[in-house]
Protein: Hydroxyethylthiazole kinase
Amino acid sequence: MYTMETMRQEIAAAVEKVRALKPLAPSITNTVTVNFVANAQLAAGGTAAMIYLPDEAEALAEAGSSFYINVGTLLPIYRETVPLAAQKLHALHKPWVLDPVAIGIGSLRTELLSLLKNYPPAVIRGNASEIIALAGLWNLSGGTETSNVHGVDSTDTVQAARLAAISLARFTGGAVAVSGTVDLITDGRQAVCSYGGSSLMESITGCGCSLGGVIAVYSAVASPFIAALCGTAAYNFAGREAERHAAGTGSFQLAFLDALYNASPKDISLTQFTPEEV
Ligand SMILES: Nc1ncnc2c1ncn2[C@@H]1O[C@H](COP(=O)(O)OP(=O)(O)OP(=O)(O)O)[C@@H](O)[C@H]1O
Ligand SMILES: Cc1ncsc1CCO
Ligand SMILES: [Mg+2]
Structure:
C-alpha cells in the first residue's frame, strides 16, 4: 500500500526515470489518433513505434520495455497482430496497457477483447462506459452485459464504473484508470481520484488514446498503479495548463503537447489527488 506521500515521490521518480531512459513503448493503436499518441509519448520522454503487422508486433514486443494496445479502428490483419502481441508480452512478463475503445461494436472487437482476458494487461485505461463493458465481457462484478458505449464516447459517470474498475484490477493484478472530469485509478486494494484537466479535452479526439500510450511509457519504469496515476496526473496538469493558452480546440492540442513536454516531476507529482474508499 502506498501513502499519499510515497505516491507523490514515486510519481516524481517515474517522470525523471522516463526522461533519463527514454523507454520504447510500441503501440498497436487506431488510425484516428496515431500521430497524437506518438507525439504525447515523445513529449513525456518515451520512445514510440507504431505497428500494424503480426511479425513486427512480435519483434517489438521483444524490443520494447512495455506496449500499448488500443482497438479503436480495427483492420482485418489485427485478428493476427493483436493476439500475437499479447501472447508474446505475457510470455515475456512485460507490462502492457489496454484501451478497449468502443467495446461492443462489431464482432472482431468483441472476439479480440474476449481473448485478451487470457493475457491480462498491466493497466486497463478507458472511459467509464468502456470499463463497465469490459468487466461485463470478462464476467466480472460491476460489469454489464449490454454495453452503454455510444461510438467512442462515455455515457456513464466515472463513479458508476468504480466497482467494475476494482474488479478488473483484482482480476489482472494490475491497475485500472477510468477517465472523465475526475479520474479514478485503482489497483484493487486502493483507489485515488485525480483532479485537473480541461473540458476542452472532450472536444478534441485522442486525449484518452494518448493517455493510454503515455501510461505505457510510465509502465516501463513504475508499477502499474504508479504508472496509471502518473500518466493521469500528467494529463490533468497539462490539460489545465494548456487551457490557459488555447484559443480553441486546435491550439489546445498544441498547447497540451507543449505543457506535457515542459511539465516537471514536481508539476506532475503535486497535482491534486485524493484517496478513495475501496
Ligand atoms: N470535463 C473534463 N474536465 C477535465 N478533464 C477531462 C474532462 N474530460 C476528459 N478529461 C481528461 O481527458 C483525458 C481523456 O479522457 P476521456 O474520458 O475524454 O477519454 P476518452 O473518451 O477515451 O478519449 P478519446 O477516446 O477521445 O481518446 C483524461 O486525462 C481526463 O482526465
Ligand atoms: C474517433 C475515433 N473513432 C475510432 S477510434 C477514435 C479515437 C477516439 O477514441
Ligand atoms: Mg477513448
Q: What stands out?
A: The chain is about 50% helix and 10% strand. Strands lie at 27-28, 67-70, 96-99, 123-127, 175-179, 183-186, 191-194, 273-276. The first strand starts at residue 27 and ends at 28. The chain has a mean pLDDT of 97.
